[in-house]
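Priority: medium. Attachment 1 of 2:
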């Protein structure tokens, strides 16, 4: 069976919740779905699926703030994980300052050290950080899965448009479909990619 890293992207106080300056309303909606996924992964006996928490953690005068409001400054409440999805001690945390979890971080090194071949993206925003991370995963030769009900964006339209883009190069499926594939002894990624352009 393959080895999967489930990337939980930016489920942080500055993105999820009524007090979030860059609030993603869908973030609250997907939180119970991700809690279910976390519980399933954490109770598995095998070590073939890792939860990896991607945390936006900007420097005070980050260049990102030239185009967006100040948010998720390293060491602040806003950059911390929401309590419902807080990492456990043995789960890896990757801090980033750009949209992609791969940009100037050690994410790729961690995945290769742990012999991961498949990246599973979840979190916020679907059309920004999730999509950017998924793209870079593909560029680094990983198979990529998107969990549609484990991602959200500022609006449903943004989320749906993001999923359309992601469907071109990732396997888009629900959390239940993902779990069921594993429970059936199947590789969830099988069938991924653009069916119209893929060479069989």
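Attachment 2 of 2:
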């Amino acid at each position: 069976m393959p080895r999967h890293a489930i990337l939980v992207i930016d489920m942080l106080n500055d993105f999820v919740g009524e007090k979030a300056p860059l609030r993603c309303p869908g973030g609250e909606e997907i939180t119970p779905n991700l809690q279910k996924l976390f519980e399933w992964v954490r109770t598995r006996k095998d070590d073939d699926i890792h939860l990896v928490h991607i945390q936006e953690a900007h420097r005070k005068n980050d260049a990102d703030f030239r185009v967006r409001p100040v948010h998720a400054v390293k060491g602040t409440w806003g950059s911390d994980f929401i309590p419902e999805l807080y990492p456990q001690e043995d789960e890896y945390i990757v801090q980033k300052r750009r949209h992609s979890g791969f940009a100037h971080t050690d994410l790729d090194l961690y995945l290769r050290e742990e012999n991961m071949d498949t990246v599973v993206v979840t979190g916020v925003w679907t059309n920004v950080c999730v999509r950017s991370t998924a793209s870079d995963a593909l560029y680094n030769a990983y198979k990529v899965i998107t969990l549609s009900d484990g991602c959200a964006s500022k609006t449903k339209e943004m989320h749906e448009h993001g999923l359309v883009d992601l469907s071109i190069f990732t396997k888009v499926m629900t959390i239940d479909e993902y779990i069921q594939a594993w429970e059936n002894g199947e590789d969830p990624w099988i069938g991924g990619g653009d069916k119209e352009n893929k060479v069989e």
